Amino acid sequence: MAVVDATLEVGNLIGGAFQPARAGRTFESRNPADSGDVVGVFPRSDNTDVDAAVAAARDAFEGWRRTPWPSRAAIILRASELLEERKEALAQLMTREMGKVLTEARGDVQEAIDMGKFIAGLGRHAFGETVPSELRDKWAMTMRQPFGVVGCITPWNFPIAIPSWKIFPAIMAGNAVVLKPAEDTPLCALRFVEALADAGLPAGVVNVVFGFGEEAGAALVSHPDVAAIYFTGSVETGRIVSETCGRMLKKCSLELGGKNAIVVLDDADVELAVDGALWGAFGTAGQRCTASSRLIVEQGALDRFTSRLVERASHLRLGDGLDAKVDVGPVINETQLKRIHSYTEIGKGEGASLLLGGEIATEGALAKGWFYRPTVFGGVKPAMRIAQEEIFGPTTVIIPVTSMEDAITAANSTQYGLSLSVYTNDLRTAFHAINELHSGIVYINAPTIGAEIQLPFGGTRNTGNGHREAGGHVLDEFSEWKSIYIDYSGRLQRAQIDTE
């Protein structure tokens, strides 16, 4: 497939061909570091475009589900190799389209490469079980089968990695896919799907429909021929997706928000904890569901940790992520910029101490984009809104505590349960924390970001609905089990009744 020039108008990818929105509407993707830079023009799709994409996926499904698993794996492996060959170009595009600094963008692409290789390795693994039957001359076994057409709705903050988490295992299991990427990063998503097409994926197995959530996304979720939905996004939208899927009795996997905490205890290596807090709170300008937006610090380490964090954060450099000297890029758009600043005002109104930042950056070249200064609040209480609600920006809060027990209580005190971290040099404390922290991911002496694809990713409570992405059991989320009984006794045998 020919690579599309980012300066041209791009169509939906349906059945292997680019098509404009049937209603003729379009939208622009803009560089958040320079809002005057138009990355591309994309179709603003509606239900008619989704209908066409689902129909193309349905047509491709029958041939794809009959394709041997090793053959599917070979295509996925080749796609991951193409991503590797194109890594630098993809990273530079990602920085231009969503703003994260170039080193982080390279990591985003690398995660997709790793996921592709990991999933391709499942192509020759056992995909079922043979188990003993209770009856003579009878076999019992299981196998996996695909759902059919599935919908994937992905966010802008990891615009290549997260599509890979969903699409690679979905097609490995034999499903056909309709992808609706975030409207802020459409070109990154298209580049990812192009790698699959160039690797030999049959037309129609993965289709891309661009547009807005309330139009294209809602149509995909409610489509009667879509058997399952895989969604990463906000809790508010996740509830709507879940309600729709629940009414339609379709599978729904939700990966939603987080209000993650680093706990720093008195015996911790404070400088190491500050390293982790800087990376966890301000990496990707805090726009990660795993961002370290709460720093819960025991009293004995509080003064040193606070002074070192504020001092080091004050030297973080804002700017265009393509500049190697920049530490923190822009936030994704103007709406989010205003939302982040509104939480600064909320925090001040709640009586928290603003120790650093709290401002929209407007000097020089920064005025062209959507930049927010790294922000630190001190003296925060666990019940404050800035300690409870997901801000999704470069803002973190320091919550003082007087004991490990109080720290664990504070860490568990939000509606979320994605990623929690503890810094301590006491092995007993570390293992106690692992058991007591209520989250899907726990780190010891590392920040709340940095998940690896060979372990399950997901959270508890309002972080999602219990499903997990990545890890050794990932195909459980993208296929369903079929139980098979083969009786070669030549007579009627009745389970739980016949004993001989």
Description:
By secondary structure, the protein is α/β, with parallel strands linked by helices. It has 2 domains: 12-256 and 464-483, Aldehyde Dehydrogenase, Chain A, domain 1; 261-444, Aldehyde Dehydrogenase, Chain A, domain 2 (3-Layer(aba) Sandwich). The chain is built from 15 helices and 23 strands. It has helices at residues 47-65, 69-85, 87-98, 102-120, 161-172, 186-198, 213-221, 235-248, 270-282, 299-313, 334-349, 385-388, 404-411, 427-436, 475-478; strands spanning 12-14, 17-19, 26-31, 34-43, 130-131, 138-145, 149-154, 176-181, 206-208, 228-232, 251-255, 261-264, 294-298, 353-356, 360-361, 371-372, 375-378, 395-401, 416-417, 419-423, 441-444, 460-461, 480-487. The strands form 7 sheets. The chain has a 7-stranded mixed β-sheet, with helices on both faces. A 5-stranded parallel β-sheet has the order 9-8-7-10-11, with helices on both faces. The protein has a 3-stranded antiparallel β-sheet with strand order 5-6-23. Strand 1 (12-14) and strand 2 (17-19) form a beta hairpin. Helix 3 (87-98) packs across helix 4 (102-120) and helix 4 (102-120) runs parallel beside helix 5. The longest helix has 19 residues, at 47-65. Residues 1-6 have low confidence and may be disordered.
